[in-house]
Amino acid sequence: MELLRSQGRTRPVSKIAATAGYYAGVVAICVPFVFVFLWMVMGALKTQVQNTAYPPLWIFTPTLENFRKVFVANHFWTFIQNSVIVSGGATLAALALGLPAAHAIARYRQRGIALGILVARMAPHLSYVVPFFILFQRLGWIDTYLCMILSHLVITLPIVVWIMIGAFEDVPLELEEAARIDGCSRWRVFTRISLPVCRTALATAVILSFIFSWNNFIFALILTGPERRTLPVAVFNFITSDEIDWGGLSAAATLITLPILLLILLVQRHIVRGLTAGGLKE
Asked: Is pLDDT above 50 for 272?
């Protein structure tokens, strides 16, 4: 009896310790990211003098002048339009190319091709800039939407392929074979059977592709001029040889981050469900 009582006491204590350790780990991971985000928002609401003050000012009178400066002086609406077009176009192009490719790789077990696509994704984006610049300059496509969308396929296409390979592998082969016996073509089997079954992973691929394309900086900086630059370059415009406009820099960064942050908060369950459904397994 004493042994049973001691075990009864040990289990709740160990469960409480495990729960406390879990939440302590979550806090330890989240605090740095939350602090950086709050620091960015605070910098957007300070003047240049307040941002450069030492020690840092924690209590101050907020101002919206930096946000006004971002919209008035930097053609921010043009940057937003360019980012939406480029990120949306690159995501749609990646879906058009990546979904059939992922289905074929999954069904025919072409792991060599999948590995090659992964290596292309892992390579630094800077290594693509010079070949892309030479190619698009010869074609006369520099500072065009087509140039940006094609270059962003390096980002979006591997994401779509690798997430969807695992999703298509989870679709029972018998389901597709039954549809083929009923007279469906391969294309109808792909669009009417495989894709609907993998809709959660598909949503994850779309969201992640759009986010990674939205945040890309190097391609927009090198391959575009003033007319086609995207939002990350708007942040770079506040850095000059004379000074760094910390208020404008923070305001632009806040405006760029907020849409993506809200999107992630709205669809986080779908992302987690899509990734844990076998989307990233080897």
From this structure: yes
